[in-house]
Design brief:
two-stranded antiparallel sheet, alpha/beta, 9-stranded mixed sheet, Peroxisomal Thiolase, Chain A, domain 1
């Protein structure tokens, strides 16, 4: 294990549209499931990392989670990154373990994006620069990602139908996932007939508000064999921050994913050819295409052609988002990309199992394309 650590437990809450759900309740539900996955002995956990909620943020959030779970950890940390937060939590857990601060870390993230709609809030995390963009209508993730998508189309001839191939693949995989929110298969024609959100992004190019949470437990390598579930090794990690929002991007087609993934591959001593499946952050379909290029699964500008003809579907060259991703399983900020990678490498994914899966890549992204984090897992 290149990092000396492994994921030894995972848990997920109820997923999708959960009436009456609260963000805190879902996170605790996932955490309890993860503790159950390590045999129920929560006293083995001496570290807690939690992602700060977007609604009703509060200080010392990881301490609150630990308190409600009956833990008194030696190490706690709050993460405020959005889409790259789950990967960043795992990276922080590995760093803390290798620094000798703790041995076994519980990481928790999730939200009630659907159930919380219309509910009063005491505040929320704001987007940087929103006060400058909003007066001109350039507000919200679809607007910012649409600019990057349009530039990619202009530079490389990428088409809306190629965006649709990503949506179709994710929905196909979600149809095999009992916990997915959107399980009805779709076609390219369904994608092309879905309404515009912000051109060139259609409804089926966009992830939708959903409820859910995930948790995972990271342990030092020498302890991993002491847990009941098969450990999944953390082979490599990497991150990159180029800017905080796309307003400051020098090139709308470039992504921090290139250097983040390069560092992870170098740490693991692997190449893209060694990867059996990829769980890639997919808030919008073009994000998957640019990640495939940045990771080296195909050349720059060839991502659109790469996703066609079932290449990223189960049974294809590189299955992507085997759980359905943010686009079809649920928008849980990328947390379920990690739990799905672990399930796949345990060979416990049932109908959606990638045959003989040995290595998985996982991505997290935020700040549009400016912040990226990469994990490589091994069976």
């Amino acid at each position: 294990m290149s990092t000396g650590c492994a994921v030894v437990g995972i848990g997920e809450s109820r997923i999708g549209k959960v009436p009456g759900a609260t963000p805190e309740g879902l996170r605790l539900e996932a955490a309890v499931a993860a503790v159950r996955d390590i045999g129920g002995d929560k006293q083995r956990i001496d570290g807690v990392i939690a992602r700060q909620p977007r609604r009703n943020p509060q200080p010392n959030y990881s301490a609150t989670m630990a308190e409600k779970l009956g833990l008194e950890p030696a190490y706690i940390n709050d993460i405020s990154l959005s889409g790259s937060g789950p990967v960043a939590m795992l990276m922080n857990a590995v760093a803390a373990i290798n620094a000798g601060l703790c041995t076994t870390v519980l990481c928790i993230a999730g939200d009630a994006g659907w159930a919380s709609r219309g509910q009063p809030a005491r505040g929320g995390l704001t987007e940087p620069g929103a006060e400058l963009r909003s007066p001109y209508g350039a507000d919200g993730a679809p607007v910012m990602y649409a600019m990057s998508a349009r530039r990619h189309m202009h530079e490389y001839g990428t088409t809306s139908r190629q965006f649709g191939a990503v949506a179709v693949a994710c929905r196909k995989h979600a149809s095999l996932n009992p916990s997915a929110m959107l399980r009805e298969p779709i076609t390219i024609e369904d994608h092309q007939s879905s309404r515009w959100i912000v051109e060139p992004l259609r409804l089926l190019d966009c992830s939708q508000p959903s409820d859910g949470a995930g948790a995972f437990i990271v342990a030092a390598g020498e302890r991993a064999k002491d847990f009941p579930s098969p450990p999944v090794s953390v082979l490599g990690m990497g991150s990159e921050c180029r800017f905080g929002e796309a307003t400051h991007a020098q090139d709308l087609t470039a992504s921090a994913a290139k250097n983040a993934s390069r560092r992870a591959f170098e740490m693991a001593g692997l190449t893209p050819a060694d990867v059996d499946l990829a769980e890639l952050y997919d808030c919008f379909t073009p994000v998957v295409i640019t990640a495939l290029e940045a990771y080296g699964f195909c050349k720059q500008g060839e991502g659109g052609a790469f996703v066609e003809d079932g290449r990223i579907e189960l049974g294809g060259e590189l299955p992507v988002n085997t759980h359905g991703g943010l686009l079809s399983q649920a928008h849980v900020g990328g947390m379920l990309h990690i739990t799905e990678a672990v399930v796949q490498l345990r060979h416990e994914a049932g109908a959606r199992q990638v045959q003989n899966a040995q290595v998985a890549a996982v991505s997290g992204q935020c700040g549009e394309t400016g912040i990226h984090a990469t994990l490589l897992f091994g069976r």
